[in-house]
């Protein structure tokens, strides 16, 4: 895993009087600076580094490294595309169904379309047709 080069370094220095905390960095002209900071500021910087490192690692783990081809996308798809044969069979079935529906008497065709095409239930169709739901079934 390649990480970006940091623009700063953190350093702790233990002395007899306690621990001192420093941050070193280079300014825009390339001049090096070192600042002594409080423990709280230093610890916050460390936490920020950890969060950034964890984010980079998460991104690295979830990135796709292989090239994605149509075949792999199709395998990953929730609903696989139909083959040409399946599409042809479906088209023939649809054509036969249309011919069969066209051959129905007007009342049955209307009720069939209301139920299957417009998704009304038997009770709604019965109310429209002024009859009982069992007559629609």
UniProtKB/TrEMBL annotation:
Domain of life: Bacteria
InterPro entries the record matches: RNA_pol_sigma_r3/r4-like
Protein name: Sigma-70 family RNA polymerase sigma factor
Gene3D superfamilies: 1.20.140.160
């Amino acid at each position: 895993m390649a990480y970006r080069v940091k623009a700063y370094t953190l350093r702790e220095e233990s002395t007899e009087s306690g621990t001192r905390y420093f941050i070193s960095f280079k300014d825009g002209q390339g001049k090096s600076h070192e600042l002594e900071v409080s423990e709280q500021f230093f610890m916050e910087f460390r936490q920020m580094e950890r969060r950034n490192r964890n984010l980079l690692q998460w991104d690295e783990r979830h990135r796709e490294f292989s090239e994605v081809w149509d075949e792999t996308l199709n395998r990953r798809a929730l609903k696989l595309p139909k083959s040409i044969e399946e599409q042809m069979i479906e088209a023939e079935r649809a054509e036969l169904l249309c011919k069969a529906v066209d051959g129905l008497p007007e009342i049955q065709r209307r009720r069939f379309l209301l139920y299957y095409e417009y998704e009304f239930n038997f009770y709604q169709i019965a109310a429209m047709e002024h009859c009982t739901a069992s007559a629609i079934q």
